[in-house]
Amino acid sequence: MYKYDQYDQAIVDARVDEFRDQVKRRLAGEITEDQFKPLRLMNGLYLQLHAYMLRVAIPYGTMDSRQMRMLAHVARKYDRDYGHFTTRQNIQYNWIKLEECPDLLADLATVEMHAFQTSGNCIRNISSDQYAGAAADEVADPRPWAELLRQWSTLHPEFSFLPRKFKIAVIASDEDRAAMRLHDIGIQLKERGGVLGAAFYVGGGMGRTPMIAPLIRDWVPAEDLLSYSEACLRVYNRYGRRDNVYKARIKILVHELGAEEYTRQVEEEFVHVKALGIDPPVAELERISAFFTPPAFEAGLTEDVDRSDPDFAVWLDQNVKPHKQPGYAIVNISLKPIGGIPGDATSAQIDTMADLAERYSFDELRVTHAQNIVLPHVAKRDLYAVWQALNDAELANANLDLISDIIACPGMDYCSLANARSIPVAQKIAQRFADAERQRDIGELKLKISGCINACGHHHAGHIGILGVDKKGVENYQLTLGGSGAEDVSIGKITGPGFSEDGIVDAVEKAVEKYRELRTGDERFVDTYRRVGVDPFKEAIYG
Amino acid sequence: MTELRFRTDEVLEQPAVTMDAFLDQSNATAVRLEPDDDARALIPHLGRIALIEVAFPKFRDGRGYSSARILREAGYTGELRAQGDVLVDQIAFMRRCGFDSFAPEASLNMADVDAALARFPLVYQPAADAGVPVWKLRHG
Fold first, then answer.
1. Alpha carbon distance A318, A332 (integer Å)
2. For residue B98, with 0-12 CB atoms within 10 Å meaning exposed, 13-18 middle and 19 or more buried, which class applies?
3. CB-based burial label for A159 (10 Å; 0-12, 13-18, 19+)
4. How does DSSP classify residue B59?
5. Backbone CA torsion sign across A178, A180, A185, A187
6. Contact status of B114 with chain A (Cβ, < 8 Å)
């Protein structure tokens, strides 16, 4: 894991100092809320329906136990004893007091954490594959590249007032666990003759107008990574639309220009930018990479796991994934208990996960874009002990990638942008499908719920997606089918007229039962949908 | 009116003309760039320009940051002024992009400006100023 040196620490400390000063000016009435707003947003502090919400950055979703315990501490000391893990691999706290926020950021800074650029029209937290360093199919660990981008994008003087927010993901496998092509820039590391380079996909995104990012360059060498990124951003900063907030994301620019013309402009800018000497020497990437060398895995560990406890066996089959190192496994901790709030965890649960990471996973944790937690490096001999501890903490939900493993935005229960509530819909659907055997029979089904068109709940990328809208003052829910955020990326299509809160739960069930009727072989829901098309589902839902 | 200036040469009295007027008029030495003007169109003429004023009609419109860097990258050494909705917490970014004078619509508190400019002595990326990126400090 990356460790700060004195420079990184000084920058984070200065940020705390700056925000303390800004809050002081606000509380003293020297600046108005209007003037304060852009300042607090640069530090991830939103004013929501009921209180301030603070979003803390978890760069590329990676933490150690000390940092995870700090998140529990923040929940206890500054919030109502819980936090909410987000689709951007970050954590949000919903009940923050403005006057306590500087102390909160100071506490975070003691464990190399911050809220830099977790909101605002700037380059946001860099996201990545939650299995980085553990997945057998990666060409390299993508996180050193993500860290290089994190540093480059932090307080970038030219790109802090972009037309709109800007999200970058870095992965290193053909299997896409990070929704890479639904980012403003999606980077996939590749290997050629023992050398690493990056494929750039630019102009993806969700929101009101979902787009899948086209490939604009299949090979950017490591030594050009930052200058090429800078060229991509500069073309966007100059020519991205600023006349309409809904058309301001880079996806609209790339779409309107066409990928070919956007690429031409980037390449032209790149020739210029490259000559400026702004790329760090390769030694810097090597320095960062040294923090991400594999942990001291033991050799010769047993591959056998005692499956005699049936509840454990179910969890093992559903939530534990193969690791590249023999004798080890990747453990997924689902934050989706039936009837719970997707992504929420109490301070006690956060502490439990930190303890388990320290004891069993080489002190590492990951946050996933599906709002779950990963222990990336667990010896198979320890799996049962880990499961028992998780079970005691009510964290052994064996539903990874099943219909109750729902992504949901906070919706109108918290968010000032929302038109409808997301959480109660997620809870009702999970309860409808509470029968674990039925869920497993249905198999992989990614259900995602957004409470407004901004699509924070990734509904466009759901095998089943739900979008909450306001229809003449009443919450109404549209159903989309056939989306995917994985390597088979696609945008879901609306089935037809929307539903009431209870109606949408029935509609989901009818679609799922239609799939069970139509599926052949080991088809997933989305495979059947793609084979048969929307009509049979429409008939089942509306007929 | 320029409120903050980081240059020692004399303030130019000539009013800045629009980009179109400048390109038509061979004797102007001061030009004003609106956010949608292409800074690169000025590059052939930089030798005779003493002042480029970059307009920020709204602080959220960040196109002027790219305009400034493009001009400095092209070797422009004259005065580069940020005019308009220029706020104290943007001055440090603007300095890094090459602005060396400021004409904000609303008056700035100079103590706040000084604090903001002193706050981040370390930078992660090279820009149009003399700031040395942290990676250079690490690797020499």
1. 9
2. buried
3. buried
4. T
5. positive
6. no
Sign of CA dihedral A257, A259, A263, A266: positive
Q: Which residue has the tokens 């560990």?
A: A301
CB neighbour class for A295 (10 Å; exposed up to 12, middle 13-18, buried from 19): middle
Question: pLDDT tens per residue, chain A (543 residues)?
Answer: 999 999 999 999 999 999 999 999 899 998 888 888 988 988 899 988 888 999 999 999 999 999 999 999 999 999 999 999 999 999 999 999 999 999 999 999 999 999 999 999 999 999 999 999 999 999 999 999 999 999 999 999 999 999 999 999 999 999 999 999 999 999 999 999 999 999 999 999 999 999 999 999 999 999 999 999 999 999 999 999 999 999 999 999 999 999 999 999 999 999 999 999 999 999 999 999 999 999 999 999 999 999 999 999 999 999 999 999 999 999 999 999 999 999 999 999 999 999 999 999 999 999 999 999 999 999 999 999 999 999 999 999 999 999 999 999 999 998 989 999 999 999 999 999 999 999 999 999 999 999 999 999 999 999 999 999 999 999 999 999 999 999 999 999 999 999 999 999 999 999 999 999 999 999 999 999 999 999 999 999 998
Phi/psi for A183 (5° steps) reads -105, 165
Tell me how close the Cα of A22 comes to any Cα of chain B, in angstroms: 10
- Cα A168 to Cα A150: distance, rounded to the nearest angstrom: 10
Mutate which of A21, A158, A230, A284 to disrupt the B interface (most B C-beta within 10 Å)? A158
The pTM of the whole model exceeds 0.90? yes
Which value does ipTM take for this structure?
Answer: 0.97
B35, B62, B124: residue with CB nearest A152: B124
Task: Count Cβ atoms below 10 Å from residue B122 Cβ, excluding itself.
Answer: 17
Dihedral of CA atoms A493, A494, A495, A497 in degrees, nearest 10, equals -170
CB A313 within 8 A of CB A307: yes
Give how far A278 is from chain B: nearest CA, Å.
6
| DSSP element (H, E) containing A104 | helix A101-109
Cβ of A280 and B139 within 8 Å?
yes
What is the separation of C-alpha A273 from the centre of its chain, rounded to a whole number of angstroms? 30
Which string of b and e fits B24-60 if b means at least 16 CB within 10 Å? eeeebebbbbebebebeebeeeeeebebbbbbbeebe
User: Given B66, B122, B133, which is nearest A237 (Cβ)?
Assistant: B66
Residue of A nearest to B61 (CA): A161
Rounded to whole angstroms, the Cα distance separating B36 from B56 reads 11
d(CA A158, CA A180) in angstroms, rounded, equals: 24
